[in-house]
Amino acid sequence: MKANSIFKFSFIIYRFILIVSIPLFIMAEFLVGMGGHNSDPNNTNYLFYVFAIITSILLTVYKQTDITKFRLKKILRYGNIFLLIISIAFVIYELFEIIEEYSFLTEETITLSLVISFATISFILLYGLFKDRI
Q1: C-alpha span between 122 and 13 (Å, rounded)
Q2: pLDDT at 40 over 70
Q3: Are 3 and 129 in contact (CB under 8 A)?
């Protein structure tokens, strides 16, 4: 019973991070632009917004889907697993970038710990989706 609550808690945290990150990143772009700098939005910013919106919507729909709709729930589970694998690959890439560029300087410990925490939550959620315990 306790293991299921860990998966559900990681589900709630992951979805919360995705939902909160969208307005924060948009606000950061506006603040950079208001400061007189070029915020220079590129395609990766918009891909992140689309990824975060789609993933949070699919996670919400998966959680609210009744168990009697087994086929739909299975499709949503596999879709979420695919999106989580993409997310984990990107987080691991960013982790290697941080390690390679800054090599554990004291200024980057907060960033590094946040990335490692997000990766841990992603792995727990991925395992929970594989075992269908969410």
Answers
A1: 10
A2: no
A3: no
